[in-house]
Specification:
Blueprint (H helix, E strand, L loop, with lengths): L15 E2 L6 E2 L21 E4 L5 H12 L3 E4 L2 E4 L5 E5 L4 E10 L2 E9 L8 H15 L5 E7 L3 H9 L3 E6 L2 H5 L5 E2 L5 E2 L2 E7 L1
Parallel strand pairs: 8-9
Antiparallel strand pairs: 1-2, 3-6, 4-5, 6-7, 7-8, 9-13, 10-13, 11-12
The chain binds zinc ion.
The site of zinc ion has 6 residues, from loops.
């Protein structure tokens, strides 16, 4: 399948793509750099729609690919990716981006948001997030959108803050605990340890 690629440095699954060279990169081998203008990447024609039952296998496959699990823990809840609603972004062949979410009190919790490397840098994640924000605004009793990420995920921390999310909580060591104390190496070689919570007030 088009989504699944191997890192240019190692045999790990590629989670990102070098937007200049086109090389595929796993999490630890991706690097954060200061970059200037590089010309516009064309936005591919993607369709956004709610996920249905027939998408379940693909949603599980993508969750396994990106997170190595289909059960996602955040805000002291455990969510099964197959059982919660999602919006999906599709190109002409397949689902290339997913935003899974769940109601939690007066909030919509973004449980997982990921875009296949080939389609990154083309506004797909932004469109998925805007769709979720619109959905939340239509529900009178939804007061905020919340999301949890990990301390290494600098791209997510930047992405959500650009949309107006603010950091509301840091749970030191929480992600490390969830992985049974086994330290995983995350984005750009940063150890994965803490849950960082953000919220957008509506
Ligand atoms: Zn690698």
């Amino acid at each position: 399948m088009e989504t699944m690629k191997t890192c240019a440095y190692c045999d790990n699954a590629a989670i990102y793509r070098d937007r200049e060279s086109g090389c595929w990169l796993c999490l630890p081998h991706a690097r954060f750099e200061i970059a200037g203008p590089r010309g516009k990447i064309p936005h591919p024609p993607v369709t956004i729609r709610p996920a249905t039952e027939i998408d379940q296998a693909r949603l599980l496959e993508l969750a396994n690919y990106f997170w190595h699990e289909t059960e996602i823990e955040c805000f002291d809840h455990v969510y099964q990716v197959a059982e919660i609603p999602a919006y999906v972004a599709c190109d002409e062949h397949e689902i290339v981006g997913v935003a899974s979410y769940a109601r939690q009190g007066d909030a919509i919790n973004i449980v997982a948001l990921h875009v296949a490397p080939r389609w990154q840098g083309r506004g797909v994640a932004s469109v998925l997030l805007c769709t979720l924000i619109d959905t939340a605004r239509r529900e009178d009793d939804v007061k905020q959108i919340v999301v949890a990420t990990s301390n290494d995920n600098l791209l997510a921390l930047g992405f959500y803050q650009r949309f107006g999310f603010v950091i509301t909580g840091i749970l030191p060591g929480r992600v490390l605990e969830q992985h049974g104390g086994v330290e995983m190496i995350g984005f750009a070689g940063i150890p994965v340890r803490d849950e960082i919570q953000l919220a957008l007030r509506l």
